[in-house]
Design brief:
Strand 2 (about 50-55) and strand 3 (about 60-65) form a beta hairpin. This protein has one domain: Alpha-Beta Plaits (2-Layer Sandwich), CATH 3.30.70. The two termini are about 20 Å apart. The chain is of the alpha+beta class. A four-stranded antiparallel beta sheet has the order 2-3-1-4. The protein is built from three helices and four strands. InterPro entries: ABM_dom, Dimeric_a/b-barrel, Jasmonate_Hydroxylase-like. This is BA75_00795T0.
Length: about 110
Amino acid sequence: MSESRFAKLPKPPYFAVIFSSLRESDGNEDYDAMSERMLELAVKQPGYLGVESARDVEKFGITVSYWDSLKAIKQWRSHSEHVVAQEFGKSQWYKDYEVRVSEVKYAHGKPIE
């Protein structure tokens, strides 16, 4: 991720996958390594545009990944290593989670100077 922590994105439209999660207190030994591996794989996927992520001290986090199409999102969701990570998430790493997909039609902000 860049120093600014903001994804460098094209002008809309594009799609956002919003992954909100609450981590388990224990059973997270391999979580960081898997998270890094998923980022390594995601950036190589056709249609990947960027990611932004944050987690608080109470283990609630939000990761937003950006994609150029719904097709790209579906392909990433079914990537074999990502499927394995999803199963670990359900069985060991997350107490609760939600995935939402939305289309970004407009975006603006204040660029970092």
